[in-house]
Amino acid sequence: MFNKRTRVKELLQQEPAGQEVTVMGWVRTFRNNQFIALNDGSTNNNIQVVLELGQFADELLKRITTSASLRVKGTIQASLGKGQKMDLKASELEILGDCDAEKYPLQPKKHSLEFLREIAHLRFRTNTFGSVFRIRHSLAFAVHKFFHEKGFVYMHTPIITASDAEGAGEMFRVTSLPFDNPPRTEEGQIDFKKDFFGKSTNLTVSGQLEGELGATAFGEIYTFGPTFRAENSNTARHLAEFWMIEPEMAFCDLEDNMNLAEEFIKYLIGFAMENNREDLEFLSQRLAEEEKQLPQDKRSELGLIEKLEFVLNNEFQRLTYTEAIEILRESNHNKKKKFQYEITGWGMDLQSEHERYLVEKHFKKPVILSNYPKEIKAFYMRQNEDGKTVAAMDILAPGIGEIVGGSQREERLDKLTERMKEMHIPEEELWWYLDTRRFGTVPHAGFGLGFERMVQFVTGMANIRDVIAFPRTPGSAEF
Ligand code: ATP
Ligand code: MN
Asked: pTM, whole model, 2 decimals?
């Protein structure tokens, strides 16, 4: 049996008492032909392997280069050196895979995040990405734990769909028709009846509509899967392929929805604080170092961990869209004409600079905005009594902007179809969706949380490309 090894993370929690262990990992550094810092990805901390002078042949020592992979057997002893509590005194050392130092692009020095994106296949071997992706794993696990413990059913909604859930974004088309000579109708249009599914299909932009079908049978469901948007936005918060969590709850109104979303976000943060302390401390330190380069007024008031603690211990600020417009209109920022997009008044769609002003400058904490004008929101949102607004809610987070979008859904068939007519959404295509309103309709609500934006918030990473393993963005699908 080959895989009889101790993980470095577990090893470092033990007391050094001469125990014999085998570790395997990749070399971070090798100094004085004697000390190897070996990392196996379970933690950013390395185990220091100590070789005795003359113990191994020079030929072997030459092959111990950065990122070569090793198997080391030896005994654990208290370290004589500073900086680590134990050493692994090697008795056997085997090189599993050589690494040509001349060709290996990662050196034991600080690389820019931009450069690391170009070698995303290797960047997991850095401390920063080690921490980010262990936290990402933890958060994904916590998503399932949270909903499972609440009795929600995990539902896998389709990736290929024929419906555009909400006009949420531009879609990627899925087709098996030939590009050079697609079949055409008599009118000369591409004939999607001849396509694989007998109709035009695309990659899903949201699992919500199917999620509602589940919620109106199970009571509560959630989805957690990839979503795709062909929007050409080259920002630090948009991906063409991202993961979304979408709970959908029957017997639930807008306020219940907000309560669940706030509880959920806090749960995820709390889970990472408890289970990823070491990685959070590393990232916190990293962020603090980075901010030292910024002018005083651009630095954050709170460190990463303090920020997370603050969010955990304070209620999100709740206000209506209408109140938000008033705050923005009355702000000095607006009066001094500092917004790039003018505050034109009630009815306008909020730009991310407006959202960030509310969160970062005005309230200095997460904000839940609700009851938006119906004109700027999707057809399925429940219409309020005022005839002007819908029961929508967005959660805005400091440094990120929108992290959650949700609503109470319109459960009244007549109101729903009326709105669909106004918005030119063909009823025939959504017959199955409308059936839920025909057969035992119930008040229900749900939201979508962008998983990468959540990972960004917890890790403090400024660019969304650095919290997903292999980002898909306009012009880029390497790896
Ligand atoms: P934005 O205005 O930021 O583009 P949106 O209004 O299009 O977001 P929704 O359609 O409500 O967003 O999607 C729900 C959630 O999914 C958002 O709150 C956000 O967290 C996330 N999200 C949306 N688009 C993207 C994207 N392109 N990349 C990563 N996450 C996204
Ligand atoms: Mn969008």
From this structure: 0.96
Instruction: Write b or e for each residue in 81-103: b if 16 or more Cβ atoms lie within 10 A of its Cβ, otherwise e.
Output: eeebebbbbbeebeeeeebeeee
Does any ligand 1 atom lie closer than 6 A to the CB of residue 152? no
Q: Give the burial class of 5: count Cβ atoms within 10 A of its Cβ; 0-12 exposed, 13-18 middle, 19 or more buried.
A: middle
pLDDT at 300: 83
Contacts for 354 with CB less than 8 Å, ≥ 6 apart: 324, 328, 339, 341, 343
Ligand nearest to the CA of 223: 1
Which amino acid makes up residue 451?
F
Q: How far apart are CA 359 and CA 179, in angstroms?
A: 47
Return the pLDDT at 469.
Answer: 98
Phi, psi of 240 (to 5 degrees): -80, -25
- The residue ranges of DSSP E strands in 236-330, in sequence order, are 241-250, 317-320
Which of ligand 1's atoms lies nearest the C-alpha of 395?
18
Ligand 1 proximity of 452 Cβ (cutoff 6 Å) = yes
Task: Give 201-241 pLDDT, tens digit per residue.
Answer: 999 999 999 999 999 999 999 999 999 999 888 899 999 99
Cα separation, 207 vs 224, in Å, equals 9
Q: What is the rounded distance in angstroms from the CA atom of residue 143 to the CA atom of residue 149? A: 10
Give 396's strand partners: 367, 402
Positions in the chain whose pLDDT score sits under 70: 164-169
pLDDT at 164: 59
Residue 415 to residues 209, 273, 422, Cα–Cα distance (Å): 17, 44, 11
